[in-house]
Design brief:
With 334 residues, the chain is an alpha+beta fold. It has 14 helices and 5 strands. 53% of the residues lie in helices and 11% in strands. It is globular, with a radius of gyration of 23 Å.
């Protein structure tokens, strides 16, 4: 993120990093140590750990289920030559997507990027064919399971959920509204029932994550170990209710308004606009305008929400818990 006048300098630096990284052996070992510390930090954070284990469980056997940063074992064993080979085979013209947002001009960005590529010696051709996009429905989901990860923490961290939707799936708009109703903020069902009415937890929410090949969806809560059975019952009941009962028109209207408002406010940020452009190019090749996106959300009906909840959330869910032994036992014995 730079001033508009500094576009040439920013493009030069980024293109030099992308095209001409040295992967110096000494610096490679230094970075290995940094990554191992990062992984250790994540393992020490039960909220991070429960999300990682949940994704790993739902997408077991698929690359999407692997930890983004790797594991201590894989990072320790990884050699510089393997990384260099991956870099040289992957960071190539046919795979590169450049996006920019802000006070920039398309031609100026193209000129700066092409100049950096030519300086690096990349072979460029006007008739070159870009790499194909990934298949949008290739994820394979594992059967539902209950996974317990014992940790000596004060709270138990729970996720209940399962498969989600790919970023190209037209049902993603209904799923987004359904997730907002279930656990998207202080007025959501989970927040009201778990925190406000019953005082079972301080933090609870629902979430979705979509990728080119699939996705995950679920609900999270952190609570005292003794409250785990009660929290699990509420999570299960509220997910089931979303599939069994039509959403009240006022609740639907408020949820759509919340989703639309969040989307609009996010679109005011140049970083968000840039990311949206890049994802559209990589995943689908089609960028929905702001108005088209809002219309998709505004078209969601109560029946759409019931259907997507029944399709994705209401079946026997995967449950993952990170916390003390007694909390883990309450889940695995249930």
């Amino acid at each position: 993120r730079v001033l508009d006048a500094d576009l040439p300098m920013a493009a030069e630096v980024i293109m030099d990093m992308v095209t001409s990284s040295l992967l110096d052996a000494a610096e490679f070992e230094t970075e290995r140590g940094v990554i191992l510390e990062e992984l250790a930090m994540a393992l020490d954070d039960p909220a991070d750990l429960v999300h990682e284990r949940f994704t790993e469980t739902v997408l077991a056997g698929h690359p999407l289920g692997r930890p983004i940063g790797g594991t201590p074992e894989t990072i320790a064993a990884l050699g510089r030559d393997a990384v260099l080979a991956h870099y040289r085979s992957t960071y190539v013209p046919g795979e590169l997507v450049i996006t920019a947002a802000g006070n920039v001009h398309h031609e100026a960005v193209c000129d700066a990027v092409l100049a950096g590529a030519r300086t690096a010696g990349w072979q460029l051709a006007d008739d070159a064919t870009p790499a194909p996009r990934r298949e949008s429905t290739s994820a394979v989901y594992a059967p539902s399971r209950t996974v317990a990860v014992p940790r000596p923490t004060e709270q138990a961290h729970l996720i209940m959920g399962g498969r989600g939707l790919a970023t190209s799936d037209p049902r993603r708009f209904a799923l987004g509204v359904a997730s907002t109703i279930l656990g998207g903020g202080m007025s959501s069902r989970l927040f009201q029932e778990i925190r406000e009415r019953r005082g079972l937890a301080y933090n609870t929410y629902s979430f979705t994550a979509g990728y080119a090949e699939g996705g995950v969806a679920g609900a999270y809560a952190a609570c005292a170990p003794a409250k785990v059975p009660a929290v699990l019952r509420v999570l299960r009941d509220e997910i089931a209710r979303l599939a069994a009962e039509p959403v009240d028109p006022d609740e639907l209207r408020r949820a759509i308004g919340q989703v639309a408002g969040t989307f609009i406010l996010g679109s005011e940020d140049t970083g968000s606009r840039m990311t949206r452009l890049g994802l559209a190019e990589i995943v689908t090749g089609k960028l929905l305008s702001v108005e088209e996106t809002l219309e998709r959300y505004r078209s969601v009906t109560a029946a759409d929400i019931q259907q997507v909840a029944a399709d994705l959330l209401a079946d026997d869910p995967t449950v993952v818990i990170v916390g003390p032994e007694r909390a883990c036992a309450a889940v695995t014995d249930a």
